[in-house]
Amino acid sequence: MITWCVAHTQPLKKLVAQQHLLDQGYEVYMPRFKKTVRYARKVEEKLVPLFPRYICIGMDLDSARWRSVNSARAVSHLLMSYDLNTAKVPTRILEDLRVGEIGDGIVPVASLVNFVKGEKMCVL
């Protein structure tokens, strides 16, 4: 059974971490959204991570060697719970994000109205 965990990545290295974890056989989910950026009198839309420096990793905790994620390139560490097990993300939360996607992990801004900038999230 696939359990979703969260890893904290090194600054600006999410794509490196994603590719390395995919190469190791893990499932990876990194939701992004389109953000309008103004720079030097130009307006562009950029794809930016919904959760900066965090990446969701799907693995079977019974058979996978999840501690190897901590030594993956560009991964700082897996988030852990108080009992020193991996912190798990309820599948329902990721399914809700995936249902609203417009393609390739891109979440429309309109579906994010339930989130507020700086809001703390609890991972069970």
TrEMBL record:
Pfam families: NusG. This is Transcriptional activator RfaH. InterPro entries: NGN-like_dom, NGN_dom_sf. Keywords: Transcription. One of its GO terms (biological process) is DNA-templated transcription elongation. Residues 4-93 form the NusG-like N-terminal domain.
